[in-house]
Design a protein that fits this description.
Elements: E1 11-12, E2 15-16, H1 20-39, H2 42-46, E3 49-59, E4 63-69, H3 71-82, E5 90-99, E6 104-114, E7 120-132, E8 135-143
Parallel strand pairs: 3-8
Antiparallel strand pairs: 1-2, 3-4, 5-6, 6-7, 7-8
Length: about 160
């Protein structure tokens, strides 16, 4: 019969199992992010990130594209995208955190936005959150549809 070994860092046979407190910390981080997004507080959202920020998306024609943004690039693009915030949208999000370790969490989000006219748009995206000395921060964003005009990714 196989034995399992649980270590103090929460890993069992090399796989981290988050506690309820670990999951609650991720949920609280996203609650803060969502509140800032609603206000369009892009500078404050940038304070929740680690730069350079990795991005992965796709481009028309069937290839992926990747970039790194500085804080300045992030603020510029997100200010344009978010405008005055998301307050005019009804947002429904289901987030699934997948703890790779106690310090690395991939979070998949399925979101539906409904505007004031009742138009709905659904999307799926993922973020890599990393634990820093100051708390959780996002370091990588993955979402389709952002790569218009970006060069396709190449191997090597």
């Amino acid at each position: 019969m196989a034995q399992t070994a649980t270590r103090q860092d929460g890993t069992e046979n090399g796989v981290f199992t988050p506690s309820a407190e670990d999951v609650a910390a991720i949920e609280a981080w996203f609650a803060e992010y969502d509140a800032l997004a609603e206000r369009g507080a892009v500078e404050e959202i940038a304070g929740l990130a680690v730069f350079p920020l990795n991005l992965a998306t796709d481009v028309p024609g069937g290839a992926a594209a990747v970039r790194q943004w500085s804080r300045e690039e992030f603020v510029e693009v997100m200010t344009e995208v978010m405008g005055g915030g998301t307050a005019g949208l009804a947002m429904e999000s289901v987030r699934t955190p997948r703890f790779l370790t106690a310090n690395l969490v991939l979070v998949e989000t399925e979101a539906t936005m409904t505007d004031e006219d009742g138009n709905r748009q659904s999307t799926r995206y993922a973020d890599l959150l990393v634990r820093t000395a100051d708390g959780w921060a996002f370091q990588t964003m993955v979402q389709g549809g952002w790569g218009q005009g970006w060069p396709p990714a190449t191997r090597g």
